[in-house]
Amino acid sequence: MLLDAIRPDADGADRAREAVPARPDSETARSQAAPRRGPARGVAVTVRDLRKAFDGHTVIDGLDLHIPAGQFTAVVGRSGCGKSTLLRLILGLETPTGGRIQLEEPAGVARRNVPPKRIMFQEPRLLPWARVVDNVAVGLTGLGSRRERRERALAALAEVGLADKAGQWPATLSGGQRQRVALARALVSGPGLLALDEPLGALDALTRIGMQGLIERIWQQQGFTALLVTHDVAEAVALADRILVVDEGRIALDVRVDVPRPRRRGDPDLAALEGRILENLLGESPAA
Amino acid sequence: MASTLLDDLGRRAAPWLLPVLALAGWQAAVSAGLVSNRFMPAPLDVARAGLAAASTGELWTNLGVSALRAIAGFAIGGGIGFALGLANGLSRLSERLTDTSVQMVRNVPHLSLIPLVILWFGIGEEAKLFLVALGVFFPIYANTLHGIRSVDPGLVEMGRVYGMSRAELFRRVVLPGALPSIFVGLRYGLGIMWLTLIVAETISASSGLGYMAMQAREFMLVDVVVLAILIYALLGKLADALTRRLERATLAWNPAYRTA
């Protein structure tokens, strides 16, 4: 759509995926999902023996992980298990103490066209002194002319259903609307990897469900790699192709969600899976 | 329609109700002979003195001289305070080098320097500029520094993630975030500017509003003394109104500053 025009060679993502150690089962999970309309431009992520310690306190402890391009992965775990740190490490917001993180951009893409990595934070983090459309345009910092940025920002706002709020101050929006503006800002540049750090945690239940649908739809259209950190297992089950349970800085459980999309709320398969993951989370520390 | 117009008029007039009542009461008290004219002239006498001073041009000359001193001193002291506040807010090294010294000097009441300043500069312009600049420096410095410190680190991180350069980060995130606090400093600075100037002019000057008031005291012209004091009040109000307008224009995004 608006972003595809600038990346005509995004099918390189598939080639990149073949180059990495295969995880055929997760591929089948994807092929069962609803067909992608947009071209894939996702970035594959490979993490080897990753370690991170803060002041001698180990948070990530020798973690291995491969996320194929375009996959929607959810990371769940008890608070303090290191799931947010993992996300920040992959995004480059923290420096690892040891190990390495490799992002494989779609092959054959010129350096300057490499799709960016974006993150959506727990809070919207909008600039209160910039109009909504200018906040979205922050996502295009350093790209194109002022007019181009504005046009693309307006298109991205329309995508999240806030076209009529373009000229308003963030202070006049509701919490859900602000988080939608933050989503538009994250997506306006056509990212290859979108990290979501509990972005819906502060929203009420109904707004949350609406946002989940919006994120899923845009992911299906744009084909970026999505990495969602959440404490809400139901949310992970509803959205993800694959769920990772992180415990004590390692991956304790790696489950594929083979339920076809669109997923129905209250689907018995999803409920069973949610139960299994919750059991795993609670079982590891009955006291908690 | 008419009622909203009346409402609007009422809202605009309300702040002036008290000053007008006070004036009327004052005039009545003097006219009735409750207060001696020698100590407290009636508002009408003050107005007459004002007209007289205005017609000879004496009032305008003194007002102009004082305003020039105020503006120049404010620009120098405020400019330095703002620059140092920015530097110390953005650079740890700069802060480590200067902040302790600034805090020490800040605790010296700047008006206590008047004898020293007279020894240094005599009663020339430099003395007044120095004192005003020194007085204005501290509130602007402290509030600029505080403003930059209190910018949400989450927003700064967001700006970095989205690839803003240092200059862009400053212009689009740090400075606007610090602005409300900088305005607080501006207001304090304006108050201190008048205070310092008037004290300095009263003690040592050969022109200006404070000088005019001191001259009038020599000749027992109470009405001119009161006139000078009223002009201070008006000038203070004017400076405040200007800041308010500036705040509304630049902080329109902030619900706390939005026009009702």
What this model shows, in words?
The complex is a heterodimer of chains A (288) and B (260). With 288 residues, chain A is of the alpha/beta class. Chain A has a domain at 126-189. Chain A has helices at residues 12-19, 24-32, 83-91, 132-137, 146-159, 175-187, 205-222, 233-239, 268-283; strands at 44-54, 57-67, 72-76, 98-104, 117-120, 193-197, 225-229, 242-247, 250-256. In chain A, strands 5-6-7-3-8-9 form a 6-stranded mixed beta sheet, with helices on both faces. A 3-stranded antiparallel beta sheet of chain A has the order 2-1-4. Chain A is globular and about 50 Å long. Chain A starts with 11 loop residues before the first helix and ends in a 5-residue tail after the last helix. In chain B, helix 3 crosses helix 9 (209-218) and helix 6 (125-149) runs antiparallel to helix 8 (166-203). Chain B is flat. Chain B has one domain (41-257): Orthogonal Bundle (MetI-like fold), CATH 1.10.3720. With 260 residues, chain B is an all-alpha fold. The longest helix of chain B is centred in the last third of the chain and has 38 residues, at 166-203. Chain B has helices spanning 2-31, 43-56, 58-90, 92-106, 114-121, 125-149, 153-161, 166-203, 209-218, 222-250. Chain B starts with a helix and ends in a 10-residue tail after the last helix. The mean pLDDT of chain B is 89. Chain A binds chain B through residues 91, 93, 116, 118-119, 121, 123, 125, 127-130, 138-139, 141-142, 169-171, 185, and chain B through 152, 154-155, 157-159, 161-164, 168, 172-173, 176-177, 179, 251-255. Chain B: Residues 59-243 form the ABC transmembrane type-1 domain. Chain B: Belongs to the binding-protein-dependent transport system permease family. Chain B: It is found in: Cell membrane.
